[in-house]
């Protein structure tokens, strides 16, 4: 019998939703600078972890299984509906390819960092690298999806969350502060006047025709999400497994990702509030992961994993600089490209508004592009790490 104080399914769901709600309310209400350094994500993960490890909240509930099997793939489909690859390339030009260089830096930086510290980490730590790669290419939703696909342990996911936030605290100020070096950077990268003029004249036509959200829109989104989830669950069991990475669980996430991207090419992309609904579900799922975590598994490996994360982000930064040099791309676009990878939709607009406010809408499109490629890139990074884990 479960002796936790909160163990009923309704009680567990109340905690998971309530934790997300209260920290975003606090961020909005207080405007505290604390949240600039420790975003709500880390609290939404940490508080349920503390509650479950102290016996206040159960760490075994049918709610957790349901969130993994049904809600996670559903929010992934909904999250991808707003991806618009064509518009992003048209508006950002060569800056998109700098972002892809940064993505390559995340994918290749993972095995480089992993091989340097693998002897100090648990045997399955390569899965934690895959989970973090999901965040650093796409965002929190990708990290959650890849964690589920790889069946990363709760302790491994905890390491990924810890590394993600500690690196973010250092990397975001670097991206913001880089504006001071824009002239010298652009001169060294041989950026032409035409490129700079293009940035001044950019007219981002994001779909700001946000209609009034109606009840039926949520029904549309939910039915699309559940149809794709049902189809992916059915198909994934019949696809060949190539262990340790391509299991039925991984196939399910990759199928869901592909279905979501295909739907983004249809009128479904114009359904309002899809991104907002998806992100609300993402944070409920992050709280769910925290509730299942065993924090005792974090202590022995945390320092080495964090060291690997800083080596890893250095590789990403070097790839961004290489891309900017080869393609003659300006500092503003390079900083936004890195933020679209490492910080996702939450950070890219912050960096863009600091460098050039006209690029804020484009930065959001770039972050959405990261969502599109995040799962594919993260599974590839995990596979490279798994090859080195023996």
Structure description:
With 390 residues, this protein is mostly helical. The chain has helices spanning 9-30, 34-37, 40-53, 62-80, 85-92, 95-117, 125-137, 140-150, 154-177, 182-188, 193-201, 215-236, 248-263, 274-291, 302-327, 331-342, 348-355, 360-388. Helix 3 (40-53) runs parallel beside helix 14 (274-291), helix 7 packs antiparallel against helix 8 and helix 9 packs across helix 15. The relative contact order is 0.21.
Topology diagram in text:
Elements: H1 9-30, H2 34-37, H3 40-53, H4 62-80, H5 85-92, H6 95-117, H7 125-137, H8 140-150, H9 154-177, H10 182-188, H11 193-201, H12 215-236, H13 248-263, H14 274-291, H15 302-327, H16 331-342, H17 348-355, H18 360-388
Uncertain regions spanning at least 5 consecutive residues: 205-209
Q: How much helicity do the residues have?
A: over 70%
Secondary structure tally, helices: 18
Mean pLDDT: 88
The separation of the N and C termini measures 39 Å
- One letter per element, helices H and strands E, the order comes to HHHHHHHHHHHHHHHHHH
Sheet with most strands: none
Helix-strand makeup class: mainly alpha
Rg on CA atoms, Å:
20 Å
Shape: globular
- Number of separate strands: 0
Strand proportion: under 5%
Number of domains: 1
């Amino acid at each position: 019998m479960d002796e936790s104080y909160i163990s009923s399914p309704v009680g567990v769901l109340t905690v998971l939703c309530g934790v997300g709600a209260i920290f975003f309310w606090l961020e909005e209400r207080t405007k505290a600078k604390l949240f600039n350094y420790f975003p709500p994500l880390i609290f939404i993960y940490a508080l349920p972890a503390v509650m479950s490890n102290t016996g206040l909240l159960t760490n075994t509930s049918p709610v957790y299984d349901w969130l993994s099997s049904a809600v996670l793939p559903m929010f992934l489909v909904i999250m991808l509906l707003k991806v618009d690859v064509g518009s992003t390339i048209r508006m950002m030009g060569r800056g998109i390819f700098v972002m892809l260089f940064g993505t390559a830096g995340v994918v290749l930086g993972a095995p480089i960092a992993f091989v340097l510290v693998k002897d100090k980490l648990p045997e399955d730590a390569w899965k934690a690298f895959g989970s973090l790669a999901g965040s650093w290419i796409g965002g929190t939703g990708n990290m959650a999806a890849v964690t589920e696909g790889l069946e990363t342990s709760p302790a491994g996911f905890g390491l990924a969350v810890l590394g993600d936030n500690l690196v973010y605290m250092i990397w975001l100020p670097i991206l913001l502060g880089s504006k001071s070096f824009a002239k010298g950077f652009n001169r060294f990268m041989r950026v032409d006047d035409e490129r700079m003029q293009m940035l001044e004249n950019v007219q981002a036509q994001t779909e700001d025709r946000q209609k009034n959200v109606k009840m039926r829109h949520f029904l549309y989104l939910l039915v699309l999400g559940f149809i794709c989830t049902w189809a992916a669950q059915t198909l994934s069991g019949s696809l060949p497994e190539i262990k340790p990475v391509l299991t039925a669980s991984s196939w399910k996430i990759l199928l869901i990702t592909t279905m979501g991207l295909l739907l983004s090419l249809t009128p479904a992309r114009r359904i309002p509030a899809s991104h907002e609904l998806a992100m609300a579900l993402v944070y409920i799922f992050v709280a769910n992961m925290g509730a299942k975590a065993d924090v005792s598994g974090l202590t022995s490996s945390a320092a080495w994993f964090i060291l690997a994360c800083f080596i890893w982000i250095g590789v990403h930064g070097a790839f961004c600089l290489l891309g900017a040099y080869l393609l003659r791309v300006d500092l503003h676009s390079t900083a936004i490209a890195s933020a679209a990878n490492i910080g996702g939709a939450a950070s890219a607009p912050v960096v863009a508004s600091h460098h050039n406010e006209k690029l804020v809408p484009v930065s959001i499109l770039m972050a959405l592009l990261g969502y599109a490629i995040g799962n594919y890139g993260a599974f590839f990074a995990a596979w490279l790490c798994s090859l080195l884990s023996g």
